[in-house]
Structure formats: structure tokens, C-alpha cells
Amino acid sequence: MADPLRLGIAGLGTVGAGVVKIVRQKANLLGARAGREVVITAVSARSKSKDRGVNLSSYAWEDDPVALARRDDVDVFVELMGGEDGPAKAATEAAIKSGKDVVTANKAMLAMHGQALAELAEANNKVIRFEAAVAGGIPVIKALTEGLAGNSIDRVMGVMNGSCNYILTRMESAGLTYEEVFAEADGLGYLEADPQLDVGGIDAAHKLAILSSIAFGTQVDFAGIKLKGIETVTIEDIRHAGDMGYKIKLLGSAQMTARGLEQSMTPCLVPATSPLGQLDGGTNMIVLEGDHVGQIVLRGAGAGEGPTASAVMSDVMDIARDIRLPTFGQPAATLEKPATAKTALAAPYYLRMELLDKPGALAKVATALGEAGISIDRMRQYDHPGENAPVLIVTHATTSDMLDQALAALPATKVVTGTPVSFQIKKV
Ligand code: NAP
Ligand code: HSE
User: Fold this and answer.
1) pTM, whole model, 2 decimals?
2) Do the Cβ atoms of 227 and 201 come closer than 8 Å?
3) CA nearest ligand 2 atom 2, residue
4) Which single residue of 117, 187, 244, 250 could bond 164 by disulfide (Cβ 3.0 to 4.6 Å)?
5) How many helices (H) and strands (E) does the chain have?
6) Does domain 5-104 match CATH 3.20.20.80?
7) Active-site residue among 207, 247, 249, 364?
8) What is the per-residue pLDDT across 21-54, written as a single tens digit (0 to 9) for each?
């Protein structure tokens, strides 16, 4: 049997403790599958005395994760602290420079420094693996880099933040406002320490940036993502979208177009009957479209101790089996710097606005849309007690530039009260 694979784990929170449990509970299974033992030699966290529900007494303790990363009795540095810079990045770099492979769940670090870290790893003949960084327990990195390696990827899409999907589906099922469900989710501990990472779409955009890089052979480009969070989604829009046959999701989408790479993480409408439309609660779903394979839908737990630790172990087992792939599926030097698409591909839009209920009001709105080149597909006006009539419009496919032009023209009609709301409708 080959020598044991020795892990040094920095970060013993939700994910780190989960990894320790799997290594301890499944030693025989892991050994049989890898053809060698997988053991932990050293660990690090901020507090040595905290009870983590798992026995750590047989492992060496390091206060400093960089020191852990440099230990001679560590083959693989497992970074589970989080944070795009700080100790996570310093220790990851130290590990690579001192000859260790790295496994991490840190999407923020990879989205911001993925290219530099991939170059460093390859220059040192080491690997960085990060299955847990995107969609928790769903093996989407493996699916893209290995299972679909023979395909050109046409599109990557998905719901990549469980907390946002929980908030949106709970608003709908309980008829509660965003503010009420946000407070509930926060109280239940569903949100990141900085909730803006979740509800602002940043966490999900980190994940999308990583997937785009692998899918399109481009350098990770977080800054190129059109980003909008869920804070402005109202219960009214959830209900009205439902009436028109749609659900609202914080949807990530990446596509290589003739005008460059189009990446967005924004609230969108999807058909209620589609797999994405039927995704409830904290679950994640990734849709991959390849030229030969067609559409693949992956669904599962995107967070939590067990699912995320499961993904970390997938990477550990690959290293134990000596399966070594370039960080983003191809050598870092061959990843192209993507040009960001300045304008989005044409798509249908949902528009909600309130109109003064007087003769000719709808005609003025239709004219403003028509003059911007936008064709109306469906329209609905609701009963209303006062003088303002809620109106919903679903457009035929239009570009975001044309939509912006139409929205800018609406105030001049003098029949639109308040600010119109718009969401792109994604065909899935
Ligand atoms: P967590 O529960 O907050 O745990 C973080 C751990 O890192 C703690 O044990 C903490 O020590 C330790 N730590 C923080 N700063 C440190 C430092 N300077 N030196 C040494 N240790 C330090 O976080 P988590 O939820 O396990 O997440 C870990 C990583 O996995 C993050 O990158 C996260 O984005 C990613 N991830 C998490 C999930 C999930 O469901 N939780 C899912 C996918 C990916 P103390 O315990 O002593 O404070
Ligand atoms: N806050 C993230 C989510 C955790 O809700 O999906 C996993 O990245």
C-alpha cells in the first residue's frame, strides 16, 4: 500500500468539523477506495478550546494556519477558513510554495485570485481543488472538468445560493415581505455573517465566476458579472409573476457570445413548470448545456456540514488516487482574458408598472415601448381600488439597451406613476 495521505486542516467550523468527521468515521472506506490511508496530522482554528463535537486530541495543533501549511508532516493543505484575502490566501500560497497540494471550499478567494493561485500552483507542480466552493455537495466542478470535457459548453445557469432561494420561496409560500423573511432567515442562522454576501448576490456571483472560467476556458472574471441582489424583490412581483406562469429566482447565467462573455447574477423569471422554477427552499440547481450532451441538470444541497464536507472529500480522494488536473480544467497559461459582452443577448422581459386609469394611458405606454423597438407579447391589468392601475407586460425578446431606452421614455408619458419594475425572463 502507498504511504498515507496526510491532511492539515485549517478551519474547524461547519465544514472543517464535517471533514474531520468523515475522515474519522470512514477511514476503512476511504482507504479501500484510494488504495492508501487518508489521515489528519494537524489542524488549526482561532480557538483551541472550543468544543467542535469531534475528538481532535490526536492531531497536532497550530495557532497559525501558515505554520500548518508549511509543516513537513502535511501533504495536502485543506483550507476551510474562508475570506478572499487574509489568512486563507496567505496560507494557501505558503502551502503551494512549500510543496503541498491544496483543497479549499473558498469561492471568494478563487473568484478574486483564482488565476494567480492557479499559476502559482502550476509553477510549483501542485494542484488546487475546490469542488466544495460551488454548490456545496453538487459535484459540478467534476461534471464540467471531467464528465463534459469533450463538449463545448454553450451555457451555464443556475440557482447557486440556498439562502436567497429559501427567502424567495418562503416569501411566496407564507405571503411574507422580503424584510420579514430576511429577519426570519437571519434568526435561523441561514445567512452568512455578512448577509450582504448572500442577498446581494455576491456569494452566488463568486460561484458563477468560477464555473464560467472552467466552462469557457477563460480567466476568472468576477468584475465582469452583471450583479443584482434580491433585496428589491417584492411579494407583489412574486405573486404577479406567478399569475403569468413564472417564479422569481436569483439566477446565474454565463454564455459566450459573439460580443464576448455574458455573465449575470440577477433576479430573473423562469417558467414555473421548469426544473429551476420548481426548486424550493435552500436547495441549489445547476444547468449545464454542452454541444454534444445537450442539457444536464444537477440538483442538491448547496451548503451545510455534510454536503460541503462530502465535496471536500471528493477532492481529497482525487489527490489520494493521484488524479491531478489543472485548476480550471486546462493549464492556467492557456486561459484567455475574457472580453465582457457590453450588451446582453436579447431576451423577453416582465415589466410591472402603475398607470393612471384614464383614456389613452395604455396606448401611451405601448407607444413608448414600440418606439424603442419593443414588441408586447402579453399584458394584464388588475382590479384596483384607487386611480392607479397595476399593469403587467411580458415583452417579446428585446435587448437590455432597448429596454433601458423604453424605461427612460416612460416618465414623459405622464401616465406612469412610481418606478416601473423589470425582470429578465430566462428560457430554460
Ligand atoms: P465557519 O463555520 O465560520 O468556520 C471557519 C473556521 O475557520 C473556524 O473554525 C475558525 O476558527 C477558522 N478561522 C477563521 N479565521 C482563522 C484564522 N485566522 N486562523 C485560523 N483559523 C481561522 O465557516 P464554514 O461555514 O465552515 O466555511 C468555511 C469555508 O467553506 C468558507 O470558505 C465558506 O465560504 C466555504 N463554504 C461553506 C459552506 C457552508 O455550508 N458552511 C458551503 C460551501 C462553502 P474558530 O472556530 O476558532 O473561530
Ligand atoms: N450562503 C451560502 C448559501 C452558503 O446560502 O448558499 C454556501 O455557499
Assistant:
1) 0.96
2) yes
3) 161
4) 250
5) 14, 16
6) no
7) 207
8) 999 999 999 999 999 999 999 999 999 999 999 9
